User: Which sequence fits this backbone?
């Protein structure tokens, strides 16, 4: 029997509760769950589901904090990577992107463009030179802008060397057809710097495990982008089903993908895209034992 493939989750929000020493912003939105999802709980979930590593992201309700995710990514880079928030409108901060690789555990920057003054945020980030600097210094971006295919295309055209991941297949709510919902992404596949997170998919369907429309949607993405630009992810804190069932749907219920394609989608493509070799090395050592 061949060993279970490396599985890396492309996005999980982790956070700590608001306290006087570590308060949330006064205008924080409601969290996805009352009890914070902290790293010890996440580790137990990953262990139970056979997932080797995950990319950690602080949620918007905690503000622009990166301390918690960076702490764990630095301590155990074979298990955790950090996807960081960034003050994109501040030219002084943008200059520091030249040294972003010195931030231990950091694997990229996340932009949440699904609420508020999105047009203003983009204008300020452009004016500050953020996108130009991210392209110049090789900073991978994960962008959540549901339905904004024009935005992704414009960034890819203006910055052809920029690495952009479309988060959560650019979907936000339950859709009538998941395959139809991901099909507009095909137009972005012509840009080699654009990849897609096949993440949070059970949030967008009214189905039980193994989620019948999940497989056709993944096939649609792999057909367009190639398996090297499609990444499994959960967005666990808002997942409406047990974590292990989502993992099982990807590991055991994508029969049209051959073994190399499945391994890429499950984790190897993400680690290559983000230049994150530690999970692969740790998995290979584990197999050799």
Assistant:
């Amino acid at each position: 029997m061949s060993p279970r493939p490396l599985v890396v989750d492309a996005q999980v929000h982790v956070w700590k509760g608001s306290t006087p020493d570590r308060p949330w912003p006064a205008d924080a939105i409601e969290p996805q769950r009352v009890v914070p999802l902290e790293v010890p709980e996440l580790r137990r979930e990953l262990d139970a589901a056979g997932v080797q590593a995950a990319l950690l992201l602080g949620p918007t309700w905690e503000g622009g904090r990166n301390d918690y995710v960076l702490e764990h990514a630095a301590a155990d880079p074979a298990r955790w990577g950090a996807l960081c928030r960034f003050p994109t409108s501040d030219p002084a901060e943008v200059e520091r992107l030249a040294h972003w690789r010195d931030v231990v555990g950091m694997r990229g920057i996340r932009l949440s463009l699904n609420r508020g003054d999105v047009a203003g945020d983009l204008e300020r980030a452009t004016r500050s030179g953020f996108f130009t600097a991210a392209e110049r210094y090789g900073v991978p971006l994960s962008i959540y802008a549901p339905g904004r295919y024009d935005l992704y295309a414009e960034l890819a055209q203006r910055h052809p060397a920029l690495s952009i991941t479309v988060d959560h297949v650019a979907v936000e709510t339950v859709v009538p057809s998941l395959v139809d919902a991901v099909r507009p992404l095909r137009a972005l596949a012509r840009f080699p710097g654009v990849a897609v997170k096949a993440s949070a998919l059970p949030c967008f369907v009214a189905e039980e495990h193994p989620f019948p429309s999940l497989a056709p949607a993944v096939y649609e993405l792999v057909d367009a982008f190639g398996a090297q630009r499609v990444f499994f992810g959960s967005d666990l804190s808002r997942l409406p089903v047990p974590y292990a069932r989502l993992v099982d749907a990807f590991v055991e219920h994508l029969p049209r993908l051959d073994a190399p394609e499945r391994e890429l989608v499950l984790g190897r493509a993400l680690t290559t895209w983000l230049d994150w070799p530690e999970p692969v090395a740790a998995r290979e050592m584990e197999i050799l034992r």
The longest strand covers residues 106-112. The mean pLDDT is 96.
